[in-house]
Amino acid sequence: MSTEDEKEKQKAIAAGEGAGWSVARVTSKGYMVMHCGCGDHQETLKKTPSNPDHFRQKARKMVRDCPTG
Ligand SMILES: [Zn+2]
């Protein structure tokens, strides 16, 4: 994973946390499973996404789908 990917991942996590999401667990493959504040939504952040916008898209989706924070 590049430093740039790592930075984008941290930003996505921070954006999610700002909207009430939290990191529920990390899978054996290094994926981060995020749970929302209400408990009905879940997103998985890949470890090494092939899509360079993966983390930005996930950040937007978390805030859009469940902005309880
Ligand atoms: Zn929710």
Characterize the structure shown.
- With 69 residues, the chain is α+β, with helices and mostly antiparallel strands.
- The chain has a single domain, classed as Metal Transport, Frataxin, Chain A (2-Layer Sandwich).
- Helix content is 41%, strand content 19%.
- The protein is built from 2 helices and 3 strands.
- It has helices at residues 3-18, 54-65, and strands at 22-26, 32-35, 42-45.
- It has a 3-stranded antiparallel sheet with strand order 1-2-3, with helices on one face.
- Strand 2 and strand 3 form a beta hairpin.
- Helix 1 packs parallel to helix 2.
- The protein is globular and about 30 Å long.
- The model has no long low-confidence stretch (mean pLDDT 95).
- The structure holds zinc ion.
- Residues 36, 38, 40-41, 66 line the site of zinc ion (ZN).
CATH fold descriptor = Metal Transport, Frataxin, Chain A
User: How many domain regions?
Assistant: 1
Number of helices: 2
- What is the terminal-to-terminal distance? 30 Å
Spatial order of strands in the largest sheet: 1-2-3
Tally of DSSP β-strands: 3
Sheet having the most strands: 3 strands, antiparallel
Q: How helical, in percent, are the residues?
A: 40-55%
